[in-house]
Amino acid sequence: MLRKPADVGFDTANNHILVADTGNHLIRLYDADSLTQVAAIGTVGHPGRDNRHLDQPLSVALNETAGQIYVADGGNRRIQIFDAKTFAHIASLETAGTEAIFDPAANRILVADPARMRVESYDASRFTRLSQIGTTGRPGNDANHFAAPAALAFDPAAKTILVADGFPNDRVQIFEATELRFLSTLGNTAEGSISNNLAFSPGGIAVDPAHGQVFVSDPDNERVLVYAAVPYIIVLAATAREDGIVHAALGSATAFAVSSINVGASGKLVATLDTGDATLPLTATICQTGPESVCLAPPARSVSLAYPTGATPTFSVFVTASAAITLNPSASSLFVRFVDDAGKVRGSVSVAVEAG
Fold first, then answer.
1. Tell me, what CATH number does 10's domain have?
2. Do 164 and 62 share a structural domain?
3. CA torsion, ordered 333, 334, 335, 336, to nearest 10 deg
4. Does residue 128 sit in the same domain as residue 245?
5. For residue 181, which phi and psi values (nearest 5 degrees)?
6. Does the pTM exceed 0.85?
């Protein structure tokens, strides 16, 4: 009989369902077809510190590349690693954590450690510590800190890591999976509520890459939130003098280049141009460019395109001023924004403009 099962994993290679049976101090393995138990890791009802025992296992996950099982052994404050076929013990990571997952983009193990407000990174082959996200023992709500990072997920389509960061941040942080660079946030930091736009103290998190969806359990509100995975465009602009300023000529076009990469989900976007809240005496057009930096179509006020994950389209923007423009980046800038069908900006860049 199960006692307070806390997590479930699936081993496609061996056709096993894995259950973290926390109250019984076991990882139970079931045949995925018959749903009968075929094995167990640990000793039922007997917690222990040696490698044959577990103490309140909190989560279980698979590294199917290496054929390994990761167990967050809560009572022993460690991560245990076992062979997925023989269930023999392979290694221990002596770090407390509520969940460990495999990041195949960089061959590493990531460990969520809410008590220390960090996510640790370990080499998945050598089991040596590499780095961490967050500052140990120092909570915060910016991109470099967590409050309570309790759960993790890897999105194979977008190649991102998602971190459920609980109270009081109440959000999911998204990081690029190779360099662990911060990308974006689901939810509004420190504004937990019943709104469908965020999770209040998010619990577990899972990704459905086939349908482009992210599932976040929200236990305080007794629900599961479903987010659509979206494009996330990183954009850079290169001006002629490499100073971030378009020195526009009066009556003739001055160009600058834009490069981009989609590190999020695939989607359809429109590259648009605007001057923000300012009205400037200029006209601007944009075109997508090919390998020779030649426009693929005549420049226009916007460009629509499909943006697959990992795509790196480039663009040229042409600016013509009809009167003098004083250099003042806070009031005289041109924005390139990538907007989806819902009107949401999925990436942007700006350059200052002067003319005359």
1. 2.120.10.30
2. yes
3. -150
4. no
5. -80, 135
6. no
